[in-house]
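Chapter summary example.
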Amino acid sequence: MVDGLKPLIDESFERKKNSNRIRIQTTTIDTSIEWFRKENNQMKKPSDNDLLHQCADIDDE
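The structure predicted for these 61 residues follows.
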């Protein structure tokens, strides 16, 4: 291999490795945000039973 090419190839490889690492971290963050949203939505949404009880309470009054 020509001596002048080795540093360029090494630099290109490092850059690719770093971009893959960033992509993995970004994916992890996206997944965490999705999970958090899903958890939040589950906590906020009343179940069907809760809604039925609320309707029953209104009818009783």
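To summarize the output: Residues 5-60 form one domain.
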